[in-house]
Amino acid sequence: MWNTKSTRIAAALTSLLAVSGLTACGGGSADNDAPVSANDCAMFGTGAICDIAAGRRFQLIVPATTTTSPRPVLLAFHGSPPSFGTPAKLNQFLALQKFADDYGYLIALPQGGDDWAWTSELQAASAHSADTRYALQVIDRLVSAHNADGNKVATVGFSAGAMMSYQLVCQTPERVKAAFTISGQAVGPLTACQPALPVALHHLHGTQDPDMPLAGRVSVSGKLINSLDNTIARFQQINGCATNYTQSAPWQLQTAGNLATSFEYQGCLQATGYTLVDTFEHQPDYVKSALHQLMHQLFDSAF
């Protein structure tokens, strides 16, 4: 029931306030199970692990501890080039190896294209974009070859990657059940976001973000970036939330000392909320332990 999930989210936030079998460059091909060479993985950095799905490479982060139980999955989408336009940069920004080690997630970091990186605009009806189809094949590959639990899949995305995360939970909620989105709202008509199931959502954003304003904008290529208010309101409707919400006391989430305030809507079928950080930065240096607790608590509530 949601009330249990809400309690777990609140407990995690209270805690935050109080404390303010693979080889490197190994894996297999999704197409023919041929080994992925060191040269193939080198694009992700020295010693990186990678694999292939739908003919496209993705970086793979594996927890340090071993287990025979299937692992939960996190799909992590980087921002547009050149700032955070690679899996390696996203891994560094969010300390994803540390997250995997601490919470046991198998993390896949797909490699996007140029410009916006992802085909992330919301699609009408049940249509899937090329990158949504790719993401689903990454999940299938993780399940078939890497002991992943296909029933426990979440996504995290930064900037343009957050837009991709929104697309996944809007259009494939039976496969991707939670999204933690950072500095990037849903793109395209929100009426196209009609998931058949409720999905867990938490959004993190700087109050004075110059690159991705809270009010939204239209890109030079004509893409409609929705406001955070409208994006969150859509998920309130999807998750059947009441209009009332709980608001945290200011707490430290940014290493520079900038304070954050978290909001959680009540009565939701799945956890629905957001956190605002008092900063002018698009990609602040977050306190990783606090950020990771917030992420994991959301994902755990959805499974």
Please explain how this structure is put together:
The relative contact order is 0.15. This protein has helices spanning 2-19, 38-41, 87-94, 96-103, 130-145, 160-171, 228-238, 288-302, and strands at 49-53, 56-61, 71-77, 106-110, 148-158, 178-182, 200-206, 217-218, 224-225, 245-247, 251-252, 259-265, 272-277. The termini are close together. With 303 residues, it is of the alpha/beta class. The chain has a single domain (2-302), classed as Alpha/Beta hydrolase fold, catalytic domain (Rossmann fold, 3-Layer(aba) Sandwich). The protein has 8 helices and 13 strands. 30% of the residues lie in helices and 22% in strands.
Rg result: 18 Å
Unreliable sequence segments = 14-33
Order of helices and strands: HHEEEHHEHEHEEEEHEEEEH
Q: Assign the CATH architecture.
A: 3-Layer(aba) Sandwich
Summed up, the helix count is 8
Approximate helicity band:
25-40%
Structural class: alpha/beta
Question: Total strand count, please?
Answer: 13
Please name the fourth-level CATH homologous superfamily. Answer: Alpha/Beta hydrolase fold, catalytic domain
Number of domains: 1
Note the overall shape. globular
How would you state the average pLDDT, rounded? 89
Q: What name does CATH use for the topology?
A: Rossmann fold
- Termini Cα gap: 12 Å
Organism: Arsukibacterium ikkense
Pfam families: Abhydrolase_2
Protein name: Phospholipase/carboxylesterase/thioesterase domain-containing protein
Main location: secreted
